[in-house]
Design goal:
Radius of gyration: 17 Å
Order of helices and strands: EHHEHEEEEHEEHEHEHEEEHEE
Structural class: alpha+beta
Strand content: 25-35%
Strand order of the largest sheet: 3-4-5-2-1-15-14
Number of helices: 8
Length: about 260
């Protein structure tokens, strides 16, 4: 069994100060994808680069204290790839792919942080450019290997995926164009990827949220969004056995999403 966790840290140093490292030691994960590391290599102590015996592989942003992703793994990768080959986004540290290939199969686990468009139209347009670029990248990957992409996609797909869907139809994260892109990605006749959490929990609403605004009393009132995903190729998605969202402690404004797959790395 492979246990794979995804968590937007909103700063690895901040999350560490809130008990992240001790929690990871209780999870017994095989791999853990993190987003918004908000650090550079020189900022990370050994306690950040190795978590509970899992070695981290990172894609840092050029801008200090911004973005950045990591994939921790308990096993030695066959290859590590950073970026999608698009300088605009690779400079922002948004994609790290760790390959665990064997003679019998090709398997990647990817940590990815999609842009947020909530700060204004300029960033929303960047978000649209990113989703336009990552779609063919994922399709090319799917043509040659199984993969699981975990991360903060910054899109709630359906009405069940956020509390206040009526009030957010014109807001970044729930725009018709963003939702249509997700539909296309998950359409068996088009993108063909699988939303693993929804495969296992097709009907959850209030329980499914993974992010809460720091404004108001969003967390206390559970006014949340489901914007963190495991997106997988059908072969490995079919091996997902259980999914859970941990809300016993808060390490950031996101909650960890853990899925167990019947896969040996």
């Amino acid at each position: 069994m492979m246990r794979l966790v995804s968590l937007n840290l909103n700063g690895i140093r901040s999350a560490s100060s809130k008990g992240l490292l001790a929690w990871v030691e209780t999870v017994q994960a095989d791999c853990m994808g993190v987003q918004e590391v908000k650090a550079q290599a020189q900022d990370l102590s050994p306690s950040h680069t190795v978590l509970d015996g899992m070695h981290g592989h990172f894609h840092f942003a050029q801008k200090k204290g911004y973005s950045g992703v990591g994939m921790y793994t308990r096993h030695t990768p066959s290859a590590v790839i950073t970026g999608i080959g698009v300088p605009e986004f690779d400079d922002e540290g948004r994609y790290v792919e760790v390959r665990h290939d064997t003679p019998e199969r090709k398997l990647s686990v990817i940590s990815c942080y999609f842009p947020s468009g909530s700060s204004g139209d300029e960033r929303q347009q960047a978000k649209f450019r990113f989703i336009d670029q990552i779609f063919p990248h994922l399709m090319a990957l799917k043509a040659e290997r199984e993969f699981i992409l975990v991360g903060d996609v910054n899109i709630a797909h359906q009405e069940a995926d956020l509390k206040n869907w009526k009030g957010n139809r014109k807001n970044s994260g729930f725009l018709p164009e963003e939702r249509a892109w997700m539909t296309r990605l998950l359409d068996p006749a088009e993108g063909g990827l699988v939303d693993v959490y929804r495969r296992l929990h097709p009907d959850t609403t209030d329980e499914c949220y993974t992010w809460w605004s720091n404004r108001g009393q969003a967390r206390a009132k559970n006014v949340g969004w489901r914007i963190d995903y495991h997106l997988a190729t059908p072969g490995v998605a079919a091996l997902a056995r259980s999914a859970s969202i941990y809300k016993g402690q808060w390490f950031s404004d996101h909650a960890p999403l853990t899925v167990d797959y019947d896969v040996q790395i």
